[in-house]
Write a structure and sequence with these properties.
The protein has about 80 residues and is mainly α. It has helices at about 10-20, 25-30, 35-75.
Length: about 80
């Protein structure tokens, strides 16, 4: 039995997605001495990039919301 078969289906979907995304960098991790380790670091970097992009979007939306509140206050 494969270890991935024991993972909750919701988590497994995310795992499979991260594994597929690492293959965008397959040429790089295939040149590593420890391919599995390199693939994990690529997955971590991909997640880090996603978090960074989400934080940028969140900051943008927070700023927009704050500006909207200020405009509404100025009306009164």
């Amino acid at each position: 039995m494969n270890w991935k078969d024991k993972i909750d289906n919701v988590v497994k979907e995310h795992l499979d997605l991260q594994i597929r995304k690492t293959y965008d960098q397959e040429e790089a991790f295939n040149k590593a001495d420890n391919k599995a380790n390199a693939q994990l670091w690529i997955a971590i970097a991909n997640l880090s990039r996603e978090i960074f992009e989400l934080n940028l979007k969140l900051k943008y939306l927070e700023k927009k919301q704050k500006n909207k509140k200020i405009k509404n206050l100025k009306r009164y």
